[in-house]
Amino acid sequence: MYTVNRTEVFDTWLAELADLRARAKILVRVRRAERGHFGDVKRLEDGVSEMRIDCGPGYRVYFAREGRMLYLLLCGGNKSTQQADIKHAKTMWSAIREELS
């Protein structure tokens, strides 16, 4: 089982998501990730990965791993905001890694 730490940015994005069905699917994916079942994931750069949610406009949840047990949910978005979201997730992950060291 993995420890999942959610950032305030992620929690705010999820709480403001108007599509309740998508929100439920995202929460199910997060719970599955806690058990080690990440599903459709793409590794990006700088230690950041993207969990792809097949719902609505193509929701994405960006996360990174530190060690074997700690996963951090950085932020979320959809296909239309993907490039900006990836950049934001990488910046957040860099700041978190500095705090951890």
UniProtKB/TrEMBL annotation:
The organism's place on the tree of life at top rank: Bacteria
Pfam families linked to this entry: Gp49
InterPro entries registered for this protein in UniProt: HigB-like, TypeIITA-like_toxin_pred
PANTHER family: SSL7039 PROTEIN
Name by which UniProt lists this protein: Addiction module killer protein
Organism: Paraburkholderia ultramafica
